[in-house]
Write a structure and sequence with these properties.
By secondary structure, the chain is an alpha/beta fold. The chain has 2 domains: about 10-250 and about 465-495, Glycogen Phosphorylase B (Rossmann fold, 3-Layer(aba) Sandwich), CATH 3.40.50.2000; about 255-465, 3-Layer(aba) Sandwich (Rossmann fold). The chain contains 19 helices and 16 strands. The protein has a 10-stranded mixed sheet, with helices on both faces. It has a 6-stranded parallel sheet with strand order 13-12-11-14-15-16, sandwiched between helices. Strand 8 (about 230) and strand 9 form a beta hairpin. The two termini are about 30 Å apart. The relative contact order is 0.12. Bound molecules: GDP-alpha-D-glucose (GDG). GDP-alpha-D-glucose binds near residues 390, 391 and 396.
Amino acid sequence: MMGSDAQTTPETRSQTERPEAAIFSGGSRRLVVISNRVPRGDGPPGGLAVAMKDALKNRDSLWFGWSGESPPEASDDVLTEQRGQTTFAVTDISADDYAGYYEGFANRMLWPAFHYRLDLSRYTESDFEAYARVNEQFAERVAPFIEPDDLIWIHDYHLIPLAAELRARGVSNRIGFFSHIPFPSPEIFHAIPHKDRLIEGLACCNLVGFQSARDRSNFERYVCAHAHGFWRADGRISVDGRLVRSKAYPIGIDAEDFRQKALAPEVAEKADALVRAAAGRKIMLGVDRMDYSKGLPERVDAIETLFRRYPELVGQCQLIQVAPVSRGGVEAYANLRERLETAVGHVNGEFSTIDWTPIRFVANAVPREEVAAMMRVASLALVTPLRDGMNLVAKEYVAAQDPDDPGVLILSEFAGAAEQLTGALVINPHNPEEQARAISKALVMSRDERVERYRENRKVLAERDSSWWSSSFLSDLESASVDDFAAELLDAVDTVRTAE
Ligand code: GDG
């Protein structure tokens, strides 16, 4: 159903009744974060936990998500644990639901489709039912914890319908959603089964955040062309009688913290060992989850092309590719591993000498400090996904560099990071010749040019760090009701003018 500008939804009504409170609230509201995974007390903090660090600092918060347990029969219990000012609340998902929701609809259907790989998308009705059911269960279980003034921030493609489920349960708080992965072009999105449920979920949010301007534009174009949405004068989109603001918030890192990691004494030893093992050869580095979106076979093709086109480089440089296996339960990932190992074996078989192999391939995760050490000593990094929401490796590589003698970042134009890191050598990963040319250029690039490119990238890292990311998202979410208040005033003025 197409919505009208003046339509007041239950949540906008309750917010506009007390606009002063919203204007003067000053960011002290409790934050409710909802994501598939919740940081664990033991173990190192995952990517999302690191990115959320500043958002959680000095404020009360609740972080809700999956416990990591999937027994055959899951109860609807929610276990809580207080750590500092944050309450972690977790719930089980039954084994069948987990298979359908996480491995099924989220990772066999949505992940490939959102990364432009409809050819790899696999749909079953029972997967979607499990996905919908888990979103309903999450809403049912988290709703009792939500207090009237809380800001709610939902993360990622596992939980797209969640906002609609919360609204259906009377939750009228401000809800924000952030998509860590790309939002595909309208033609691709249109092909996704149950796309209307996904759009409904996003439309139930006050704010929807994307990694890049391209993703935001794809979302808005889809909604306006296929879901009866329309742009309002205030920049928001009206869809199904709801108002949603969408905006790009490219996720950042704590660059200084990563630089310190790369400089730590125990890391320096690792770095020295790597340099010694390289015996004067330049190190090219790739660090990626083993995922078909990361352009790994294409990267191996480019290395083969490199040594064919530039035979003088044979024996002079080596690719260290770290690619820890992920999502082992999904077939496309097992196929990728096989394809990759064959391709690496082929290149190594073709070009290796007694004391040199072109590609060192590591399919296991490497400790974070070692990743930092490798980044510090690598002459170039290959970050060449076929599609990527952002790609944090690109940013980490820049952060780890020696400012006086930095390495070169080779970056796919299809990573969200390419909109920001203009000092990189930007390439099309589908073209092995272009990738090989960029590598050869990086290997001989003058120190002046490397420093200049590094400074350009480093500036972006400093200006758009993880703290900027979370605070700008939350401050826009916080002012959502102010937007509604202003919009209602404008509508009221229009009504008076029309009456006159
Ligand atoms: C999603 C989006 C978006 C990798 N191998 C090892 C290791 N890593 C670390 C990297 C980096 C992280 O994992 C990967 O982050 P990415 O951003 O590259 O990719 P996704 O996992 O696909 O993340 C992505 C991100 O969400 C955030 O919004 O940027 O676009 O797809 O930090 O360093 N870390 C360790 N050992 C490894 O072997 N310790």
